[in-house]
Please model this.
Amino acid sequence: MFIIDDILLRSIGISLPGLDMIWTLEQIQKFALKGYYNPEKIRDQIKETRLLYEFGELDRQEYERMNSQLLHKLDVAQKVLEMDLGSRMDILG
Model:
């Protein structure tokens, strides 16, 4: 099955219901990826966790567990940013 680029179809004025749905789902996915894999938000969460630990709101084990998870999430977010998973690739060159 050939996938026709919806941007090309839109530029010539053709709108197909199935392609509009695909485009909408791609936009939702892109928005979700940007929100979930945002390195700045994750860095803020790491700082917040550190402050909670310093103020005694978290014990050492809980802090280390949360910090480890956030550092892993930050590493994944940076890799996702490098790979730019939210964009299409031209496989035909």
Q: What stands out?
A: Helices lie at 6-11, 17-36, 39-54, 60-83. The chain has a mean pLDDT of 78. Residues 6 and 20 are 8 Å apart (CA to CA). The radius of gyration is 20 Å.
